[in-house]
């Protein structure tokens, strides 16, 4: 799994979360965050954005922004995984095995996005 974590964007996120952990009472579980990063890289695989950048960089950037406002592990993980059910082969069932709470939050985000597309 360590090879999956070797990336500038991942290091930037993990460094920020580590810094946050030094200033809050309830620490962010970095092991769970690393597992979510593993999932996002695994399932987004070789997908590219229009810019040519790996697609997984987008969820990591979202997680960086979320970390400015929330110091909860589940919220940061949801930011990382927010596109996986919609844009990859990761199923809800598989995500449920990872985390019931994160699966629920990802589904809520997906439903919100779907309803926005209707308007």
From TrEMBL:
Record's GO cellular component terms: plasma membrane
One Pfam family here: HD_4
Protein name, UniProt field: HD domain protein
Taxonomic classification: Bacteria, Pseudomonadati, Pseudomonadota, Alphaproteobacteria, Rickettsiales
């Amino acid at each position: 799994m360590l090879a999956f974590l070797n990336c500038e964007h991942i290091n930037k996120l993990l460094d920020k979360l580590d810094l946050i952990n030094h200033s809050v009472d309830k620490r962010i579980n970095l092991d769970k965050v690393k597992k979510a990063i593993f999932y996002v890289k695994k399932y987004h695989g070789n997908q590219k954005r229009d810019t040519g950048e790996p697609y997984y960089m987008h969820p990591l950037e979202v997680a960086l922004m979320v970390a400015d406002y929330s110091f909860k592990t589940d919220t940061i993980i949801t930011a990382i995984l927010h596109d996986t059910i919609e844009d990859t082969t990761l199923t809800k069932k598989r995500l449920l095995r990872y985390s019931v709470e994160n699966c629920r939050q990802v589904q809520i985000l997906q439903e919100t996005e779907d309803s926005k597309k209707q308007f």
